[in-house]
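Quick start: what a row looks like.
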Amino acid sequence: MIPGVRLVILGRQGAGKGTQCTRLARHYIVPHISTGDILRAAFKEGTDFGRKAQEYMSRGDLLPDDIIIGVVGERLVKDDTRTRGYILDGFPRTVGQAEALAELTKEAPIDLAIDLDVPEDIVLLRISNRRVCVDCGTNYSVQAPPRYDWICDVCGGDVVHREDDTPGAVRKRLDLYKTETEPLIAHFERLRMLVVVDGIGSADDVTQRIVHAIESRSRGGVVG
């Protein structure tokens, strides 16, 4: 069995994080932990933090850091993450959250933070062309649609253009990324935990670059 990893995946919206996280999780045989997925699981399981998060979201309020950190902490103590590792997607988003993650994982710290680098103009084009299954979240594009009449190949759900994938809405998210997440990249760089990977090219090419970067650091005794 391939050794597990403990990774944080960073990058602008539309950089292909979800696709690469899924591929890396399969390659390293570890869970892909996205913020949305663990929130939904916490709601369903009725955990303490899941119930608190539900209260905020039912009022339409943003979740405070302590709730997000609590939900992530609940997930990271499960058997699969403790024994194999994980790939974190969507957390941490800020330096404060990264510091909390370091505290949560001090007995088995994360190995690397991968910054999937795709320029803003390409991200804007990708997101404008993106189409998403409303049921399972599988991504398609105008250039690569599902096989049959915008019906998801995976689950049969409707594939749509999300309302928040308009250029104006995307620009707002990119601006938020600059203010909140770019300092996080500098934080991991200061800790010598950051690897920047070119996110341009086919999904296969990008995956190979990421795996090569991880294995290069592993040979230096960083990962594992």
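That is the whole record. The CA atoms of residues 148 and 156 lie 10 Å apart. The chain has ten helices and eight strands.
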